[in-house]
Amino acid sequence: MYPTYHCSPPVSKHTKAYLILDSFENGIDGGVSTCDNRYHSDETLVVALSTGWFNNGGMCLKNITNSGIMGAVWWPWWWIV
């Protein structure tokens, strides 16, 4: 699929990441989600994670905390798929 590098630093709640707008709708940007093998409407807020954050599926279907310049925001409807 793609290379995974073991030299990457460990991921923690303090590891910085980028949030990029994408779509999981059928026929738009990408394919089905890895966690549940389904497409998702753009009405449903979902997050695609990099390899380290994905943690071999260990983060599937969990809520996330998104913190940035404006502070931390918990989005209970943002699912990791």
From TrEMBL:
Organism expressing this protein natively: Rosa chinensis (China rose)
Chief location: secreted
Domain of life according to the entry: Eukaryota
Keywords (A to Z) from UniProt: Secreted, Signal
Name of the protein in its database record: Putative rlpA-like protein, double-psi beta-barrel
Annotated compartments: Secreted
Pfam families on file: KWL1
One cellular component (GO) term of this entry: extracellular region
Family per record: Belongs to the kiwellin family.
